[in-house]
From TrEMBL:
Native source organism of the sequence: Macaca fascicularis
Signal peptide annotation: none
Entry GO terms, CC: nucleus
PANTHER family per the UniProt record, alphabetical: AT-RICH INTERACTIVE DOMAIN-CONTAINING PROTEIN 5B, RBP-RELATED
Gene Ontology MF terms: transcription cis-regulatory region binding
Name of this chain's protein: AT-rich interaction domain 5B
GO biological process, one term: regulation of transcription by RNA polymerase II
Length: 246
């Protein structure tokens, strides 16, 4: 694979008219191969002058006639980076979603991807849970597949997970996660319930049993979203291509 090339990862997951849908794609970021799959959260900057925001990859497809590789993502901004600004009603871990999903060619999306998120200070830092116990009998792999299937309408991500593993990537590299407000509340409640528990039982299964969110990632930043806003300038971005909306 050439350093600047893009390629689909895994088998197609659907067909509709002239569109072929996929689960993941591979690209290069700062010279290193990386895979993004449906449901992934990652940092982006839509233009050099825009603030860093979070993208959630929701759809990937190819338009067979034009051979265009396309993506649909949901964007999340900090309240202070929206027209209304931050107010006393906003939580410290809150982000606000752009009301319309953004459709961007993959070649443009990868230009948006931002690798330096050291200045991003917001979000609850998830407490680590022990994943060693999940290594026995393939439990960790089963849990990852379960998460992917529940996040993505039951799609089989086995081939994508294998490709990520071959690159040295896995779900532990996730840096940010955006939850719904009810999920976030359950997660905070779960953290309080386990804060005095011995580390030997802080496993994913224990967290799930308490109604929380089982997090395999190494200390990701947890945020939540409960509101949307109309972005005033996003429609002017030359990378947006709604004409390919499926």
């Amino acid at each position: 694979m050439e350093p600047n090339s893009l390629q689909w990862v895994g088998s197609p997951c659907g067909l509709h008219g002239p569109y072929i849908f996929y689960k993941a794609f591979q690209f290069h970021l700062e010279g290193k191969p990386r895979i993004l799959s449906l449901g992934d959260f990652f940092f982006v900057r839509c233009t050099p002058k825009d603030p860093i925001c979070i993208a959630e990859l929701q759809l990937l497809w190819e338009e067979r006639t034009s051979r265009q590789l396309l993506s649909s993502s949901k964007l999340y901004f900090l309240p202070e980076d929206t027209p209304q600004g931050r107010n006393s009603d906003h939580g410290e871990d809150e982000v606000i979603a752009v009301s319309e999903k953004v459709i961007v060619k993959l070649e443009d999306l990868v230009k948006w991807v931002h690798s330096d998120f050291s200045k991003w200070r917001c979000g609850l830092h998830a407490g680590p849970v022990k994943t060693e116990a999940l290594g026995r009998n393939g439990q960790k792999e089963a849990l990852l597949k379960y998460r992917q299937s529940t996040l993505n309408s039951g799609l089989n991500f086995k081939d994508v997970l294998k490709e990520k593993a071959d690159l040295g990537e896995d779900e532990e590299e996730t840096n940010v996660i955006v939850l719904s407000y009810p999920q976030y509340c359950r997660y905070r409640s779960m953290l309080k319930r386990i804060q005095d528990k011995p580390s030997s039982i802080l496993t994913d299964q224990f967290a799930l049993a308490l109604g929380g969110i089982a997090v395999v990632s190494r200390n990701p930043q947890i945020l939540y979203c409960r509101d949307t806003f109309d972005h005033p300038t996003l429609i002017e971005n030359e990378s947006i291509c709604d004409e390919f909306a499926s």
